[in-house]
Amino acid sequence: VQLQASGGGLAQTGGSLRLSCAASGSIIRMNVMAWYRQAPGKQRELVASVTFGGGTNYADALKGRFTISTDNAKNTVYLQMNSLKPEDTAVYYCNVITDWGSKTYWGQGTQVTVSS
């Protein structure tokens, strides 16, 4: 299984970016799709996740600014990021859990930089 992430880049404070991550390969059942991020010198943290049934979970600090969504037919997960802040600067990674939790995969990461 391969994950191809795109949509990162440079944004100004208050701006928006939309990340996409498409999963391809042998997937019997997609269970969870998620976004994590890792800022310099910090641990990787969960940004948001969504189950195949549509249940979502967000990091408390990001609720209201970030929205996760999926296109299940395309095995693609999106992250709409609004009202960006410099502290949102990080490498964003997509992650999927498949086949009833038996497998997990990570994307290559996409850099998001928010200028003040």
The helix tally amounts to 0
What's the average pLDDT? 95
Instruction: Using the alpha-carbon principal axes, give the shape.
Output: globular
Order of helices and strands: EEEEEEEEEEE
Percent range of helical residues: under 10%
Major sheet: 7 strands, mixed
Strand content: over 45%
* Category by helix and strand content: mainly beta
The residue ranges in which pLDDT falls below 50 over 5 or more consecutive positions are: none
Rg over alpha carbons: 14 Å
Number of strands: 11
Give the distance, in angstroms, between the N- and C-terminal Cα atoms.
37 Å
Outline the structure in words.
The protein is mostly beta strands and 116 residues long. Helix content is 0%, strand content 58%. The strands form 2 sheets. Strands 2, 4, 5, 6, 9, 10 and 11 form a 7-stranded mixed β-sheet that branches. Strands 1-3-8-7 form a 4-stranded antiparallel β-sheet, with no helix packed on it. Strand 4 (30-38) and strand 5 (45-51) form a beta hairpin. The termini are far apart.
Present the secondary structure layout:
Elements: E1 2-6, E2 9-12, E3 17-24, E4 30-38, E5 45-51, E6 56-58, E7 66-71, E8 76-81, E9 90-98, E10 103-106, E11 110-115
Parallel strand pairs: 2-11
Antiparallel strand pairs: 1-3, 3-8, 4-5, 4-9, 5-6, 7-8, 9-10, 9-11
